[in-house]
Amino acid sequence: MMIGAVNARREAILHVEILGFDDGRIEVAAVLDTGLTGYLTLPKTEIEALGLTSQGIREAILADGRRATLEIFRTRILWDGEERGVQILASGGDPLIGMSLLHGHEINIEVKVDGAVRISPLP
User: Fold this and answer.
1) Cβ neighbours of residue 86 under 8 Å, at least 6 residues apart?
2) Average pLDDT of the segment spanning 23-38
3) What does the alpha-carbon distance between residue 82 and residue 20 come to, in Å, rounded to a whole number?
4) pTM of the prediction?
């Protein structure tokens, strides 16, 4: 089980360790975003710090309906105690965890400031 918390802006936050190349790694506080169908988004500065190489681009429709072209990267993360390969989209905002990463898990959120966020694998 992974445990996070709800912040003062009522966002469900989970800390994720992202593994780069040459033993690089960073931990980010990512917002759970059920509107994101992908795995994970990161700001370009953090992607560059990890030394990730672009895998191309992808068209996306943002929450406000605008279309955007996002750069795609691949790397590994620590997820529920195990390494997992994921696709990362470069974005200008805060790191986001999307539904592809959450697939096969149950989410429980105590929606109050400092409320627990629990993510556990489905049986």
Assistant:
1) 39, 40, 74, 75, 76, 77, 79, 100, 101
2) 93
3) 15
4) 0.92
Q: What is the pLDDT of residues 46-65, one digit of tens each?
A: 999 899 999 999 888 888 88
- What pLDDT sits at residue 46? 93
Cα–Cα distance, 39 to 76 (Å, whole number) = 11
Q: Is 16 helix (H, G, I), strand (E, B) or coil?
A: strand
Over the range 35-60, which residues count as b (16 or more CB within 10 Å of their CB) and which as e? ebebbbbbeeebbeebebeeeeeeeb
CATH number at residue 26: 2.40.70.10
Q: Could you give the number of structural domains in the chain? A: 1
Contact 76, 24 (CB under 8 A): no
Please say whether the beta carbons of 86 and 38 come within 8 A. no
Q: Give the range of the structural domain holding residue 117, as residue numbers without chain letter.
A: 2-121
